[in-house]
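Homework help board

Subject: predicted structure for assignment chain

Our instructor gave us this sequence and asked us to write out the predicted structure in token form, then describe one feature. I got the tokens but I'm not sure how to describe them. Can anyone check?
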Amino acid sequence: MLNPATAAGASSKSQDLEVALAAVELHLSSLGQALQDSNASAIEVQATELHRSLATAVNRFAQAARQGGVPPALRQRLAQASGRVAAQRESLARATAALDRAIDALMPGQITAANGLYGAGGTADRGPSSGVIQA
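My token output:
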């Protein structure tokens, strides 16, 4: 049986995990709203805050796991939050790819290695005449 001091410590740890997880959930929702509103400044702020809150939550959950475990309900909520982060990341990647395709369609051939700019590998394509003199 747990003594009162141990029970209070477990309750305090559980409360710390709850607070950390609630911050992640709040910033996840706020980032989702900012993305939906296409509010660039809010996206930047919420992405930064989400990153911070995720780092804090991961540290607290790892510490709790080392010190006796994480309550199943909080573990489930963390897994759900992780799934939401992955879904938002995938959604953002798809939106970025769609934007890239739209830009390519609107400005075909504008930025290519053929017109003296950078190639696909990020290096300048100088062609057969690189300015090096051969003897």
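Reply (TA_rk): Your tokens look well-formed. For the description, you could write something like this. The mean pLDDT is 80. That's the kind of observation they're looking for.
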